[in-house]
Amino acid sequence: MKNRKPAFALFLMAFALSVPLFSQQISRDLFTAMGAYRLPDSSFAMIGMIEDLPVIIFQDGSIRGLRKSGKTYEIGNALGLFDQIEGTVEFGRKKSGLVIVRDGNTQTGARIPLSQKDLDFRNGEIQLHGTLILPEGNGPFACVVMTHGSGPEKREASLGLAGLFAGNGIAAFIYDKRLVREMGDKWQDDSFQHYAEDAVAAARILAREPAVDPSRIGIFGHSQGGWVAPLAASQSDLFKFVIISAGNAVSPVEQHLWSGTRANRQDGVREDIIREIYDFRKIKYKAGITGDSSEYKAALPVAMQKPWFRRTGGNLPTGAFWKLNGYYDPEPALLALKCPVLVMGGESDNHSNTAENMQKFKEIFQRSGNNRLTFKVFPSADHGYFETATGKFMETELRELKRFVPDYFDTLVEWTRVVTSN
Fold first, then answer.
1. What is the pLDDT of residues 248-266, one digit of tens each?
2. Dihedral (C-alpha) 248, 250, 254, 258: value to the nearest 10 degrees?
3. DSSP secondary structure of 65-125
4. N or C end of the chain: smaller count of CB under 10 Å?
5. What H or E segment, with its residue span, contains residue 126?
6. pLDDT of 19
7. Which of the listed residues 111, 126, 155 is the one where a domain comes to its end?
């Protein structure tokens, strides 16, 4: 493919967190400037968002916060720190270019144009809404369907990865999680099965798009999407490849039990106490999900007298997500996959047990006979692929983060290029 660009530079932040960590008001001026810019040395800079904080992302993966100062924006010394100003960014008229002054050097950049097309589609009685992000040039292009993480996720949460793919010659389709816009605050989670059916419906409409090559449609799933993407691909041969990012080869209950155990261990809780907490939480999940609370009622009075009770997670998990998906078994869907699969994880992920998940993924695929597999674990990477010391990027570290881990986005794009070129 001609004019290939380094993948890292064309990333606009995709991981939207559920709780705002920054209160800075984003100006319309900066909002309209978001996108990718090509610099004279053939490197790139991205203007984007991490949570509600504006950032500039450089080709080497470094991230710096942006703060308005007159007609320019100051470049901070980390994602959310401005105690040292490293430079400035100023945007041209109509946001067609920018000027970066940093480390004593001045660089001008021209915006990289990407096109988009809104597409509405249906899964049975459910109306769904999406946007196809297209690269420069003429198609038909390979295309990645972007599934969702947890919560009421809108298509904007995947805009960054869509920009990454489209900037590297691969179309991407982003869409709202079912009923998110229609239900607003009354939205409730649905089953992985319904989410998978929605993704298949998206692939069907994309296969009819002139700009999309129907023989090169794949699916990407990060976190919760790591359960949904393989399930969708197991039910439709429209998907020719699958990308699992920070996903799990175990049930949501098992994943959450492990995450809680890891947090307790990091806090220095004794191993015998950790085991007691684990056993009680397991009983809680069973009661909340199945409705059989006899064991829970017997264990609760004893647990409430323990100093560790506050670590057991509050109310019973009786919400729609847990009822529908808590004991979901990903193995049958993984066994059914015969297409190329990329499985990625972060070594410092506090939300998923990367080491054990990778081993389980490998065991399942070995039994399936699928040998078109790639596994990649990124050292020092947390659940969002930030380079981290503790993995607690959502709890304590986000402001101090300075970069994404090397090679994550390059691996993502280059692998997709290879499997879609054959």
1. 999 999 999 999 999 999 9
2. -50
3. EEEEETTEEEE-SSSS--SS--EEEEE-GGGSEEEEEETTEEEEEEEPP-EEEEEEEEETT
4. C
5. strand 126-134
6. 27
7. 111
Largest CA distance in the chain: 69
Residue 233 sits in the same domain as residue 167: yes
| Cβ atoms of residues 87 and 103 within 8 Å | yes
Q: Would you say residue 240 lies in a domain?
A: yes
Whether the per-residue pLDDT at 208 is higher than 90: the answer is yes
**pLDDT given for residue 183 in this prediction:** 86
What's the chain's length in residues?
422
Query: From the CB of residue 83, how many other CB atoms can be counted at a distance below 10 Å?
Result: 7
In terms of Cβ atoms closer than 10 Å to its own Cβ (0-12, 13-18, 19+), residue 421 is exposed
Pair (213, 341) in one structural domain: yes
Q: Rounded to an integer, what distance in angstroms lies between the CA atom of residue 360 and that of residue 355?
A: 9
| Under 8 Å between Cβ of 190 and 214 | no
- Pick the range with the lowest mean pLDDT from 141-150, 209-218, 307-316: 307-316
Q: Are residues 340 and 358 in the same domain?
A: yes
**Confidence at 314, pLDDT banded by 50, 70, 90:** confident
pTM of the model: 0.89
d(CA 234, CA 335) in angstroms, rounded, equals 8
User: How much is the pLDDT for 10?
Assistant: 38
Of the two residues 205 and 51, the one the predictor is more confident about is 205
Please name the residue that has the structure tokens 């295309």: 143
Last residue of a domain, one of 111, 146, 161: 111
68 shares its domain with 196: no
User: Do 337 and 350 sit in the same domain of this protein?
Assistant: yes
State CA 60 to chain mean position distance.
Answer: 20
Residue 210 lies in a domain: yes
77 and 39 part of one domain? yes
385 and 295 in a single domain? The answer is no
- In 3-state terms, what secondary structure has residue 193? helix
Q: Is residue 104 part of a domain?
A: yes
- Per DSSP, 362 falls in state H
Please give the tally of structural domains in the chain: 3
Instruction: State the residue range of the domain holding 15.
Output: 7-111
Query: CATH no. for residue 165?
Result: 3.40.50.1820
350-389 residue pLDDT tens: 999 999 999 999 999 999 999 999 999 999 999 989 998 7
Q: What is the pLDDT of residue 392?
A: 61
**169 shares its domain with 106:** no
